[in-house]
TrEMBL record:
Name of the protein in its database record: Protein-export membrane protein SecG
Membrane spanning stretches: 55-73
GO biological process: intracellular protein transmembrane transport; protein secretion; protein transport by the Sec complex
Topology class, membrane: Multi-pass membrane protein
The keyword Oxidoreductase is assigned to this record: no
Native organism taxonomy: Bacteria, Pseudomonadati, Campylobacterota, Epsilonproteobacteria, Campylobacterales
Biological role stated in the UniProt entry: Involved in protein export. Participates in an early event of protein translocation.
Amino acid sequence: MTSTLLIVQFVLAIIITITVLLQKSSSIGLGAYSGSNDSLFGAKGPGNFLTKATMVLGLLFVINTITLGYIYNQNKLESAVDKVKTETLIPTTPKEETAPAAPVAPAAPAIPAEQSK
């Protein structure tokens, strides 16, 4: 999902750049090529249409940016150590079955040093 949103982000950035460059400005820019009285949108239509399109694209761009930031922040909160399976890394020895222990005879009582002389 992150890669899809990232691709959408690049596409939106390119489309916003094109719509901004097509608008008329004080220095005309690329807007000189976009409209005349016989254009599809009329004499004033391209300006209003491009302005509204730029606003919508800008809003989509901001929403997509916030969504990407949220997703990356959630991924950042996860640690790489959390993803490691500890069962496979720590070798465990199988429990060996032991035979029941034979009864042990009680130890002989210690002889005091005075009696041994």
